[in-house]
Amino acid sequence: MQPPFPVPALGRLAGAALLCALAPLAVAGDRIMIDAEQQRMLGVTLVAPVPVLEVPGARHPGMVVVPNERLRVVSAPQAGLVESLLVAEGDRITIGQPLARLQSPSLIAVQRELLDARNLEALAREELNRIRLGVKEGIGARLELDRAQSAHAARVTALTQARELLALSGMDGEAVTALEQAGHMTTVITLTAPLTGVVLDQLVTAGERVEAATAVYRVADLSALWLDIHVPVREADRVSLADTASVPATGASGRVITIGRKVHEADQGVLIRAEVTENPDRLRPGQFVEAQIDCHCEVGTVFRLPRAAVVRNQGKAVVFVHIDGGFQVQPVEIYGETGDVIMVQAPFAEGAAVAVSATAALKAAWLGIGE
Q1: For residue range 229-255, what is the model confidence (pLDDT) as tens digits?
Q2: β-bridge pairing 225-232 and 269-278
Q3: Shortest CA distance to 34 belongs to which of 42, 46, 26?
Q4: Which residues of 106-140 are buried (b: 16+ CB within 10 A; e: fewer)?
Q5: CATH code linked to domain 12-53+299-367
Q6: How many Å apart are CA 124 and CA 113, to the nearest integer?
Q7: CATH architecture label of 57-67+224-296
Q8: pLDDT tens readout for residues 249-274
Q9: Which of 104, 117, 219, 319 is spaced 20 to 30 Å from 249 by Cα?
Q10: pTM surpassing 0.70?
Q11: For residue 365, what is the enclosing H or E element?
């Protein structure tokens, strides 16, 4: 009788003992009936599946991105000349800090509109006060008072609009107030930082003429970053919100916040986005990294086993679960692999044990090899 699997490494006596152990094995469907003595002769050892709550995933390419809400573009509110740049790429900035100064002759016209609106509002207010006093003394008409109130309200609205337009043109509240009080106009626009963070890009040079809305700087708050990872569709289906994503080489990590619905044509991957809040300072926007997603599991659904416990047959994976009088063949789904450890999904009962050695012999008996 030929052995049901190769035994070249066994001596003649050991091989004969193994054949004797295999010869009487009974197989009933997915059960292999084998008594304790046969298990001892085969050298079967058992291990208990260890439940896990988090499965380390495979590593995939990722890119570090600045979250949309933390990114700002500082642009020229009016056409003009870049007089001076006060910060450069890589500089740290605080909210309100001056970043650049522009010379903009067109700012004069906007300031003149504000001064005109202020003067007209003052005249309308004086007229309203005069008519209100006359009505109170009985020498004015009520209709005239209503018209004066309406005219004054229109002038107040025009003044408010002129102030807002000047603010959009680059003048802060203090400068607008000083203009209204003193009437002194300026051609200088100071661009200030809209947030506390870092200058990502300087997009113009000193002495350059720019049009309105020309981008001068890109700035960002880097206290939190996004990690955009492309994951194969099959693995993406296992990812859930709040799973952990990390960059093992840096120690940066965070939680998954987005699971894309689109499959990208270039790599047939699905976008998984994580918000990095742990050690984000170890990453840089635009950096390509090797990222890992650790999936959270429900209790009692995913287990850790030695790799040797899992046997493959025709593209499927099984383990041999110990039962009274033998073993039960249990299909499993591979959930992840790390070194000599494998994560499987299977309905193991409490106290279950699986074979971790002599699995080739058990597989041979199960498949009827050498009968």
Answers
A1: 999 988 888 888 878 999 999 999 999
A2: antiparallel
A3: 26
A4: ebeebbebbeebbebbeebeebbeebeeeeeeeeb
A5: 2.40.420.20
A6: 16
A7: Beta Barrel (2.40)
A8: 999 999 999 999 999 887 888 999 99
A9: 219
A10: no
A11: helix 359-367
